[in-house]
Specification:
Two copies of one chain form a homodimer. Chain A has six helices and two strands. Chain A is mostly helical and about 140 residues long. A two-stranded antiparallel sheet of chain A has the order 1-2. In chain A, a hairpin with a 5-residue loop joins strand 1 and strand 2. In chain A, helix 1 packs across helix 6 and helix 2 packs across helix 3. Chain A is elongated. Chain A starts with a helix and ends in a 5-residue tail after the last helix. The interface between A and B is large, with 41 and 41 residues.
DNA sequence: CTCATATGTAACTGCAACGGTTTCATATGA
DNA sequence: TCATATGAAACCGTTGCAGTTACATATGAG
């Protein structure tokens, strides 16, 4: 949802520099409730990715050029810190050496996978997404 | 949990060839209920990774040498087919071209990430895990 | 100043997923 | 024949998330 919203903002910034979108407009495209959108936008604001104006003619706009916002930034902004995969809630039996060894091994694997994923996400920017949107919509401007 | 159980079985097979473990024994190490373990073992059996004997002296054992069971096999065995990441349940607004473009772009990214993850999991076998367990427990046999 | 309009936030609801538990059926070796 | 193990269905409680309502706050236009 965060990427969706930011993609819309990137397009909007391209067509109408200085323009903003309301949470209702974004919610219509995402098919959800404006408040849900605002909750996500609040995270993005805390991360410094967007700027938000209140009141009439208010709304949200990108705080930086799309080329300087990576998908990894977005991930971090909405990340709650929970691991991507987790063992079962109870955790391994601390009195069973095998359980502890397995848990440690899988933890290392998981960390590696998360790192690899985040690294690949760092290579994709909102500018790439905006370009893909324009191409898909057939507005290539070329 | 599946990896945990199979790791225990790999160790058991090493120490007592032909030996089996009961779902209760595994459950104690995993800190869960035997029935929960059996649910997972049922998936592994359907995938042909383990063999299960009923009745007294019954239990479960690996169906193949640990070196021929990869973490990817295990993933596939317990996978429910749901994508690792998903957009919000409602899906994009089909009447909004931008929404459709974003959804398509993210879908392609997700598929790539899942493929990359599964590929890396294919390089790790239960033999690797068993070795790590032995090392961590200080029983290097060397 | 006043008001319409937009966001900020808390609180509650409803739904789905998951683990835990019970219960009973089934297989099987001693 | 019986003790012991798995197989499977059914149910419960918890958790997480989206959706929704309600109200507070900010702000530009008149």
């Amino acid at each position: 949802m965060a990427v969706h919203a930011l993609g819309m903002l990137a397009c909007e910034g391209e067509r109408h520099p200085g323009g903003v979108l309301s949470s209702s407009t974004i919610a219509r495209s995402v098919r959800t409730h404006p408040v849900v959108v605002r909750r996500v936008l609040a995270d993005l604001r805390r991360a410094g990715l967007v700027e938000i104006r209140r009141g009439p003619k208010g709304g949200v706009a990108l705080a930086r050029p799309p080329s300087r916002i990576t998908l990894r930034c977005i991930w971090e902004a909405v990340d709650d810190g929970e691991p991507l995969f987790a063992g079962h809630p109870a955790g391994p039996n601390p009195r069973c050496p095998t359980a502890l060894a397995v848990a440690g091994y899988l933890d290392a694997l998981r960390s590696g996978a998360e790192r690899q994923l985040k690294d690949s996400l760092r290579k994709v920017t909102l500018a790439d997404l905006r370009r893909a949107i324009s191409t898909t919509r057939g507005e290539t401007h070329a």
